[in-house]
Design a protein that fits this description.
- The chain is 42% helix and 15% strand.
- The chain is built from 13 helices and eight strands.
- Strand 3, helix 6 and strand 4 form a beta-alpha-beta unit.
- This is Cell division protein ZapE.
- One of its GO terms (molecular function) is ATP binding.
């Protein structure tokens, strides 16, 4: 995959191809959701024209629009829907991707070439901005600084997990502090709520028995892969994360046998990157062995990558529950 093909994938996932502010349904129990819709609309469309006023009446000056908006909230409250809606509503050259996708592209192309490809874009939309890797965060901060200076606008979401909703403002401040000169240019919007992925499904990942595996695979319409869990991990180590999207292209489901609890942090992070791509493409997961919501051990969940792992767990529960 060359630079143009890598960057050409930077668009909202298929399930958000038609996302709009009108199709986002705020939960009345959480007024911040409607407030977030209003903030996104204002960010994209600007303030409505003032009505009334005499010929010689001077209109008050509108506050200067900020070049960035940061949606901060827990998993499954609609941040990605709002980000995709913002992207669709924006005219001109624009890009949409996860933080991991952007950093992988910078790593694959080199910093200067990545800047050259993104420069001049009207909008850079970044889903799930990560705060757990200082190196990647600073690279992205520098990249965003150059792009904002060239006229681009930035929209981002956070990855605050449900258990840390009270820490949302702290997470947002971490993000803003890391991007130094951009700090006062971002509008931070808090979104409260519960994970929609857990409203209609059980809180554990679905597994199948070895005896039922073949029958389950046969029931899938479309292409399905079948691999051992450890074989998948070994193969992921040979592929750059920016190219994981090519591994799953055209698939309806992936079947994985012998899932076990991971003891290697690098394997765990590669799995997270793969799960993000599977979720974006809505590729079903069929698995045997340890339920995928228990693939990350307690020590990992207590470490610095907790937010990434919890997001992956939420997504694996949803993907194994598909039929």
């Amino acid at each position: 995959m060359g630079p143009d093909e890598l960057i050409g994938h930077l668009a909202p996932p298929p399930q958000f191809e038609t996302a709009s502010l009108e199709s986002y349904v705020p939960d009345a129990a959480y007024p911040s959701q409607q407030a977030a819709v209003d903030a996104v609309r204002l960010f994209v469309d600007g303030a409505p024209a003032a009505k009334g006023g005499g010929l010689f009446r001077r209109k008050p000056a509108a506050p200067a629009a900020k070049p960035g908006i940061y949606l901060d909230g827990g998993f499954g409250v609609g941040k990605t829907h709002l980000l995709a809606s913002l992207w669709h509503r924006t005219r001109g050259r624009k890009y949409f991707g996860t933080f991991i996708e952007y950093t992988a592209i910078v790593g694959a192309l080199g910093y200067r070439e990545a800047v050259a490809h993104f420069r001049g874009a009207q909008l850079i939309a970044i889903d799930e901005f990560e705060l757990d890797d200082p190196g990647d965060t600073m690279v992205m901060s520098r990249l965003l600084g150059e792009l904002v200076a060239s006229g681009s606008r930035i929209a981002a979401t956070s990855n605050t997990p449900p258990h840390a909703l009270g820490e949302g403002r702290f997470a947002a401040q971490d993000f803003l502090r890391e991007i130094h000169a951009l700090a006062d240019r971002f509008l931070t919007v808090r979104i409260d709520g519960v994970d929609y992925r857990k409203r209609d499904i059980e809180g554990t990942a679905v597994t199948v028995d070895d005896a039922d595996l073949a029958r389950t695979i046969e029931g899938v319409a479309g292409s399905v892969t079948l691999d051992a869990f450890d074989d998948v991990l070994r193969h992921l180590a040979t592929v750059h994360p920016s190219r994981y999207v090519g591994l799953i292209e055209g698939l309806s489901a992936v079947a994985v046998t012998g899932v076990r609890t991971l003891d290697n942090q690098t394997d765990a992070l590669r799995l997270v990157a793969l799960v993000d791509r599977l979720y974006d493409a809505q590729v079903r997961i069929i698995a045997t062995g340890v339920p995928l919501d228990r693939v990350f051990g307690d020590e990992m969940l207590a470490g610095g990558y907790r937010k990434k792992y919890l997001r992956a767990v939420s997504r694996m529960i949803a993907l194994t529950s598909m039929s």
